[in-house]
């Protein structure tokens, strides 16, 4: 996930690939009357046996992804660039770099000494980089120098603000390495103690902060998208922060919608965007902590399956970096602002293209909720794999690869391989 306000733009993509044309295939309907926040049970998922061929596919994709991460890592900081031609990284990306290194070690792609050197370097960087207003990690840093970057995309001594969601992802991964590898607990704790939790959480809820790159004015906002809220707050809770229990409960402060006959929950009255990624990460990293979160995850996937059944368009949506101008980074949401399967820019401008089948969504869904449909999605995204890394996916209408391998895609593919080969969440004993 990228910071929601005034984020950087992927301006140095490798060429321009034509987008696709496809209707939004709406079908969403508000549920009238009082909202029953307990979703109907999802359709049963037929268990899928992991064949040796599928296991090898995941391992090969993870190794290719690790080769990319290793290639784009800056030795001076241990941070990996967002992609080969873009040096700036968010806290979300930094957490992804930790995830990639952890997974590479668990899958025996790197030895103990190499892994230790990488993690020590990343934690040392996080222990020393400047904080925004001495309160929180800045939204964006330069991977090579560790300097803060402002919302005008320039190196800055002031910074850009912070995203508590992005920081929450970092906290999840700091907890994972602390629990699974206690030797890193002191350094990880030192990093966490740099944060002013009372500023990041307002009444126990996620609070973001931004600086307008034009006016210089600052403002705060609530980060409450369903899925992302539960995921990020779990990271804060793991480190003893006082979080609002309602924020962890997927049934609280929500409304129900009907997307192509599938009942979903959305945040109400906050940001009502419904995405794949947080539910995939919850399943792979911490496990679905409650039956309600598991049901919502299954319904998010079921809505995408329903779109395929209705239109025959293979559907696996999330947010991704793409080579398509003018925005180069797009949200492909199951639902947002009254529309289903809508594509939007970083500043929430609705666009008709590009539309793509996401590589990381394919690998992730097929790991945590495997089915005949997710296997179809996996076959669909196969052209996105290259010797240089996995691109963000394939375009819906042409099934041609989108190219541009990125850190975020690589990290989630690697996580999915670890989950797939072990059959349990990463944080599980």
SSE diagram, text form:
Layout: E1 28-30, H1 52-71, E2 88-90, H2 91-106, H3 112-128, E3 131-132, E4 136-137, E5 140-142, E6 148-149, E7 161-162, H4 164-180, H5 185-192, H6 197-200, E8 201-202, E9 205-211, E10 218-222, H7 228-238, H8 245-248, E11 254-259, E12 262-267, H9 277-286, H10 291-311, E13 319-321, E14 329-336, E15 339-344, E16 350-351, E17 356-358, H11 359-368, H12 372-381, E18 385-386, E19 389-390, E20 393-395, H13 407-422
Antiparallel strand pairs: 1-11, 2-5, 3-4, 5-6, 7-9, 8-9, 9-10, 11-12, 13-14, 14-15, 15-16, 17-20, 18-19
Tell me briefly what this model is.
With 429 residues, this protein is α+β, with helices and mostly antiparallel strands. The chain is 38% helix and 17% strand. The protein has helices at residues 52-71, 91-106, 112-128, 164-180, 185-192, 197-200, 228-238, 245-248, 277-286, 291-311, 359-368, 372-381, 407-422; strands at residues 28-30, 88-90, 131-132, 136-137, 140-142, 148-149, 161-162, 201-202, 205-211, 218-222, 254-259, 262-267, 319-321, 329-336, 339-344, 350-351, 356-358, 385-386, 389-390, 393-395.
Major pleated sheet: 4 strands, antiparallel
Gross morphology is: globular
Q: What is the number of independent domains? A: 1
Radius of gyration computed on alpha carbons? 20 Å
Helical content band: 25-40%
The whole-number mean of residue pLDDT values reads: 90
Q: Give the C-level CATH assignment.
A: Mainly Alpha
Tell me the β content. Answer: 15-25%
CATH superfamily caption: Glycoside hydrolase 144 (GH144)
* Poorly predicted parts: 1-26, 29-35, 42-46
CATH topology: Glycosyltransferase
- Structural class given helices, strands, pairing? alpha+beta
- Report the end-to-end length measured between terminal Cα atoms: 27 Å
CATH architecture: Alpha/alpha barrel
Number of strands: 20
